[in-house]
């Protein structure tokens, strides 16, 4: 039996920042304070991700411009990958580039075929400051690249070009939350 609490069980569900909110479109700051406020932030991020039925969440999606993301995402072998990374760096993104359906909790109701590498490796630290390395393939590699983009102030729409991008931006304008 494990005695670790379920991630997010002590967290608060926070308001989701939506596409167009400046906090989503600027690079986040590195975490320097590894105190209890960081633990609380990560708990809130898990709680918010689960409430929104997402597979990943970056801190700026709840309005906090710090370099942290959480994930609970199946990989291509359907193995559950669960964790968080503080001050992540995308150290490797390689393999074939595949276009696959991608969505984002900050653009609810919208999905678009987005190109991503099939393999990604992220390095960073945990909330305790211990080094962590996360290696993902397939859908989980997509998730890792998506969350790293968020911390650079990017969203997946930035990866789209041409008609796909135009179509996605039109969907944003027509979304009930879109006119901001
Ligand atoms: Zn997202």
UniProtKB/TrEMBL annotation:
A Pfam family: Pep_deformylase
Keyword Hydrolase: yes
E.C. numbers: 3.5.1.88
Alphabetic keyword roster: Hydrolase, Iron, Metal-binding, Protein biosynthesis
Domain of life, per lineage: Bacteria
Positions of the catalytic residues: 147
Keyword Transferase: no
Record note on cofactor: Binds 1 Fe(2+) ion.
GO biological process: translation
HAMAP family named among the record's database cross-references: Pep_deformylase
Entry protein name: Peptide deformylase
Species of provenance: Streptomyces wuyuanensis
């Amino acid at each position: 039996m494990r005695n670790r609490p379920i991630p997010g069980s002590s967290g608060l569900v926070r308001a989701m920042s939506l596409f167009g909110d400046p906090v989503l479109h600027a690079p986040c700051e590195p975490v320097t304070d590894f105190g209890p406020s960081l633990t609380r932030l990560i708990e809130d991020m898990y709680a918010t991700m689960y409430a929104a039925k997402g597979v990943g969440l970056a801190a700026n999606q709840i309005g906090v411009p710090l370099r942290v993301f959480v994930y609970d995402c199946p990989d291509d072998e359907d193995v559950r990958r669960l964790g968080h990374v503080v001050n992540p760096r995308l150290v490797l993104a390689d393999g074939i580039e595949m276009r696959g359906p991608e969505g984002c909790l900050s653009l609810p109701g919208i999905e678009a075929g987005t190109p991503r590498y099939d393999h990604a490796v992220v390095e960073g630290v945990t909330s305790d400051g211990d080094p962590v390395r996360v290696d993902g393939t397939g859908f989980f590699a997509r998730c890792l690249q998506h969350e790293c983009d968020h911390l650079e102030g990017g969203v997946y729409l930035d990866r789209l070009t041409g008609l796909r991008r135009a179509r996605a931006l039109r969907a944003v304008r027509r979304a009930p939350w879109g006119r901001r």
